[in-house]
Amino acid sequence: MVILEGIPAGLRLSSEEIDRELKRRQVGYGRSPRMQIEKDEAEILSGIRGGKTLGSPIALMIKNLDWKNWQKMMAVEDSDMNSENIQILTRPRPGHADLAGVIKYNLDDVRDVLERASARETAARVAVGAICKKFLAELDLFIYSRVIQIGTVKDTPGWEPTADNYQLIENSPLRCLSKAAEEEIVALIDLAAKEGDSLGGVFEIMVTNLPVGLGSYIQWDLKLDARLARAL
């Protein structure tokens, strides 16, 4: 479940537009096997009528198809749990919130942290982000992104957000401009997977037609960079 507030009334919106962005989230070379399990679709519960927003909070629900396999493991009631259902995890994932979470709350099972600190949570962010993206497009504001480095391999430096360039990026399984860089990165990902390792990366975001004066120079917490940092 995710609830979005602040979208004005009268914005034309369909569930297909949200699902299109959810589908984009699931593509890309080297993605988690869970992407093959889930088929994300957003069910609109409130805030939209007749294909238009009402100005009230918009509630969306995205079902987890994999949930049925974990009902006993993650049972709410103590009476529904027994030793046969529970497989305690004691090894935290590197680079995740697992270790800090179990120490902070004195937990015995890492699963109590990882089920919430999961990339699965980003599906909800993408769904509401699709609505925000549609609203910004009405104001002639557009956001573009691309991967500029994974591991030690860098993509072509510098680019213009033209229709041709963005189509190249959209068609790339790694969101790269350069086909040569893409092939190098694919080989690097395959090697890391074979060795049980992972790779870091860098991506770039570009916004066009952004008006002057967003944020504030009056107070530190109202500055645009401060608000962006808080959102991240």
UniProtKB/TrEMBL annotation:
One of its GO terms (molecular function) is FMN binding. SUPFAM superfamilies: Chorismate synthase, AroC (SSF103263). InterPro entries: Chorismate_synth, Chorismate_synth_AroC_sf, Chorismate_synthase_CS. Its EC number is 4.2.3.5. It is an enzyme of class 4 (lyase). The keyword Amino-acid biosynthesis applies. NCBIfam families: aroC. This is chorismate synthase. The lineage of its organism: unclassified sequences, metagenomes, ecological metagenomes.
